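Figure S7 source data.
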Amino acid sequence: MSDQVTLTRDGEIAVVTVENPPVNALGAAVRQGLYKAMEEIDADDAIKAAIIIGSGRTFPAGADIREFGQPPQPPGLSEVCTRIEDATKPVVAAIHGTALGGGLEISLGCHYRIADPKGRVGLPEVLIGVLPGAGGTIRLPRVAGIAAALDIMISGRQVGAKEALSLGILDRLADGDLLDSAKSYARELVAEGAGPRKTSERSEGLGTDAENAAALEAARNGIVKKAKGLYAPARMVDSMEYSLTHSLQDASNYERDCFMECLKTPQQKGLVHAFFAERASAKVPENGRADPRPLSKIGVIGGGTMGAGITVAALNAGLEVTMVERDKGSIDRGRNNVEKVYARDVEKGRKTEEQKAAIMARYTPSTSYDDLGDADLIIEAVFENMDVKKEVFAILDKVAKPGAVLASNTSYLNIDEIASATSRPEDVIGLHFFSPANIMRLLEIVIPSNATDDAIATGFDLAKKMKKVPVRAGLCDGFIGNRILGKYATAAAYMVEDGASPYAVDEALVNFGYPMGIHAMGDLAGLDIGWSNRKNKAATRSNDARYNGTIADRLCENGWFGQKTGKGWYVYKEGDRRGTPNPDAEKIIDEARRDLGIAPREFTEDEIIRRYLAAMINEGAKVLEEGIALKPSDIDVTFLFGYGFPRYRGGPMKYADMYGLENVLNDLREFEKEDPKFWKPAQLIIDMVEKGESFDDLNKRAAS
Ligand code: T1G
Ligand code: NAD
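Tokens for the predicted nicotinamide-adenine-dinucleotide complex:
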């Protein structure tokens, strides 16, 4: 066998166990071990049936993604699945945890499938830019039907065991211990004389030729269109269609070719990068050096937009929450902001009244800070005003228990100064959530100068409990996300002043893969937030930098703050969230250009994207130079989970590598001619181009 696959016998039943922690990925050694095990089983007459099972927390969760792009090592996964299917004795897959991708394909190669009721199955290859390449597009439709199979593949969703049973993917759910149940099932099959049952030769899931063709067409017109920008979904339909009229061998070869085509696409590289970047963001020095403090009770100060969202995220994580507001009216509003989230869940059948009541029982509204005496962590989300925040932290310093972690959700303010209002700055960190805080997965964990490792580790522990994607950010104006946003938003503002239509800028960004453009995003968040930020900074703004707010200020001076006022860059009818271009905004743009003495010029879509990304990447490099971000992939994760950057492009720093850092530098050099101050290339980019380095090289260095 191999050291990652063991074969044991329990009488006439063979048990093949995959042992490749943490998720039993189907790397070369596992494939070789499985293949050898099938050879041995077929050769041993004493064995009447076999079981394949995963050790530890899960059945194999897929091919080993780290092997992508490496020279292939035989046997291929498709070959292993067919070898299992060709076994001369019935083979049962015993599934627990997550049988995903190649893992589900292995189980479909088996003749029978039993699962732990809490188990899940899926083919999430689309999430990493490929398609099921080991028989999934051939075997799954034969048991589950074409429509269900394509829904599972193109959504990438995980299917619970009960649903998988009803879809015909599973044959049985285990009752009690999985291995024992699988052995009884295998013995039953032997007793019944039930031989091997090849999934590739089954057709229960399939309809008539006309029905199958209709389902494929529906997929092409429906879900494939929804998978905007992704290459793999259309190939999944092609491969499935091909398999209906060709032999298993020909269909497997065709599926393989489709898989190899996907492997060559840039979006596959972007998606795999995003997969590992997301998992690398919590690997920070502080977590390695200290354990988090206990965390079961938290306090939230402020029940507004952010305080309520943070409270819901904490309640969903099973924590107890005490929310403190200024007065009765405010806390009633705060409570209502929280309760209405769960009321909607009940309304939509996502929760029962009992579940809502049980959650709200862990929520305590209050107007007294004394009620925070036993909180392990307290998150402040009051007005974005330094004096108000320092006043709050001074009170927390008196009421919070020793060892409590004190955190601010400020978007821009200096957390060292906020912490200076306490006698325990070592317990103060920044926890920068994104709105809506119960939905957005990004959490910037901001590291002030005096914070201790265990206080920081507690922030990461909270992120894990809340299923947030944490990013460690150093202290500067706007941390990682808002600081870089400031630069590319400025580049967009300059383009509009110089002649670009804000709607053309938005269209270019949507074509690039964003869910919406920066002007539509501004209208959604509220243009007044940027306006007050510009006004706050007016006194300290340097005079030799070109101002970026002339047009946006004039929109706000008219009271046009976006969706909340029905008008901003776009005009919004009642209940309409998309909006149409605001003709009055276009008048204001023309006036502003005249007042600024600007002769408007054309901007191509390509130039709009080059400027937008150059500004983003350049500031990203400066954030790395200053150690505000420890590795480029953290910047990528920030923009993937907090700012709508298209996941298949991997994030701005990954995009820079794929676009070519030299090209980024050339763009910066070109734009620098018109505005040396704004477009001055980061020294890091200049040095990396000289050394022929990529941001991926920096990621690898940070991981070593
Ligand atoms: N390959 C390599 N490493 C993997 C891996 C994989 N498939 N899955 C997880 N890991 C690593 C991960 O990087 C992390 O490492 C650790 O395992 C724990 O993961 C032909 C080609 C299974 C639901 O897409 O969705 O099969 O950070 O932190 O939250 O058709 O991992 O500790 O060093 O995510 O409990 C299809 C991907 C592959 C599943 C567990 N399969 N994995 O989640 O733990 S393509 C997938 C997941 C394929 C065939 C094709 C999740 C999980 P480290 P984790 P988790
Ligand atoms: P908000 O105006 O919706 O809510 C602030 C709440 O704080 C109000 O309900 C107010 O009554 C309460 N409050 C004020 N002073 C208080 C005090 N002394 N004690 C107790 N409660 C007090 O504001 P918001 O949008 O929730 O923003 C809160 C913080 O989160 C700000 O620092 C903001 O910069 C930051 N933030 C906002 C967003 C966003 O998109 N809105 C995103 C990230 C961070």
